[in-house]
Specification:
11% strand; 2-enoyl-CoA Hydratase, Chain A, domain 1; six-stranded mixed β-sheet; three-stranded parallel β-sheet
Length: 350
């Protein structure tokens, strides 16, 4: 079987539907076409009795997926935003479908797994990480807010680990991902090929029994004491102040990192994660994220953040508002306003 979109390689082997994200030069960043191909295949395989499981991998050596194609988002935001809204609409529906998939959906989250990569990997029911996993929700660094169901997972991580990951945007390890609820199983990087062959030959359970290992200690879990203490503040400014006042060197480093991020994105992210904690389902959270993402298209900071990091690459964004003190409650609230059309899921009506 050949795929219509060669950015996603599609095959069925031994009753396992194989999806390989295939843009290795871009660390398999997701395009709209890739999202569409994945959605179509998952829908077809769901009702195909000859397919008993799905296996998601990324081509190349660098990782599963570095996120969405944010340069395309940049160009859409500079125009009318319509294509970005369509992309997110379909991407978030795919994330929800993965979250409720009725067959084993095995995601190999090896290497870099960030942003949109978390969306296609961390909502599956068999989530595998390795010793090379470098996971992150780094959106605040480009003036954006964690999406793809990321706030659902971040808000449910133990203690304040999710807020730490969201506000710093810093990467965390495979062992951290398991502790935080972003993954389930640990397989060493050098055993991944054997593991994937075993999934096809012997089934998911047998492959896990043969190759999954006890993960190493989680560095973030070992830092829970200062993280839980410092991230309780009402505002991002309160959190930064608590981090700076703490004697743990890593706390000061976290404060320095947060201070480089977009003030409005940080403020909205804090509110988004806190609201997500009160929402009942992944779908409810994705609906909220869709509103927030659509609002981001109208912000100065999304275009400026992508410009600085990925277009001009001067790494010197000029945020607006420039400081946390200038961000108002109304500024934050505006990100959660209804949109037209709202995000809907299969079987729902607007």
């Amino acid at each position: 079987m050949t795929a219509k979109n060669e950015d996603v390689l599609v095959n069925v082997e031994g009753g396992v539907g194989l999806l390989t994200l295939n843009r290795p030069k871009a660390i398999n960043s997701l395009t709209h076409g890739m999202v569409t191909t994945m959605a179509e295949r998952l829908a077809a395989w769901e009702n195909d009795d000859s397919v008993r499981a799905v296996l998601l991998t990324g081509a190349g050596e660098r990782g599963l997926c570095a996120g969405g194609d944010v340069v395309a988002i940049y160009h859409s935001a500079k125009a009318d935003g319509a294509e970005a809204r369509r992309f997110w609409f379909d991407e978030y529906r795919l994330n929800a479908h993965i979250g409720r998939y009725p067959k084993p959906y095995v995601s190999i989250m090896d290497g870099i797994v960030m942003g949109g990569g978390v969306g296609v990997g961390a909502h599956g029911n068999v989530r595998v990480v390795t010793d090379t996993t470098k996971m992150a929700m780094p959106e605040v660094g480009i003036g954006f807010i964690p999406d793809v169901g990321g706030t659902y997972l971040l808000s449910r991580a133990p203690g304040k680990l999710g807020l730490h990951a969201a506000l710093t945007g810093a990467p965390f390890s495979g062992a951290d991902a398991i502790v935080m609820g972003f993954a389930d199983h640990y397989v060493p990087h050098d055993k991944i090929d054997e593991f994937t062959r075993a999934v096809i030959a012997d089934g998911v359970d047998a492959a896990l029994a043969a190759h999954a290992q006890e993960p190493p200690a989680s560095p973030l879990a070992e830092q829970r004491s200062w993280i839980d203490e410092c991230y309780t503040g009402d505002t991002v400014a309160d959190i930064i102040a608590a981090l700076r006042a703490h004697d743990a060197p890593a706390a000061g480093e976290a404060a320095d990192l947060i201070a480089t991020r977009s003030p409005i994105a940080l403020s909205v992210t804090l509110e988004s994660v806190r609201r997500a904690a009160k929402l009942q389902s992944l779908e409810d959270t994705l609906r909220q994220e869709y509103r927030v993402s659509c609002a981001s298209l109208k912000s100065h900071d999304l275009v400026e953040g992508i410009r600085a990091q990925l277009v001009d690459k001067d790494r010197n964004p000029k945020w607006r508002p420039a400081t946390l003190a200038e961000v108002t409650e109304a500024d934050v609230e505006a990100y959660f306003a209804p949109v037209d059309p709202e995000l809907t899921f299969e079987g729902e009506t607007q």
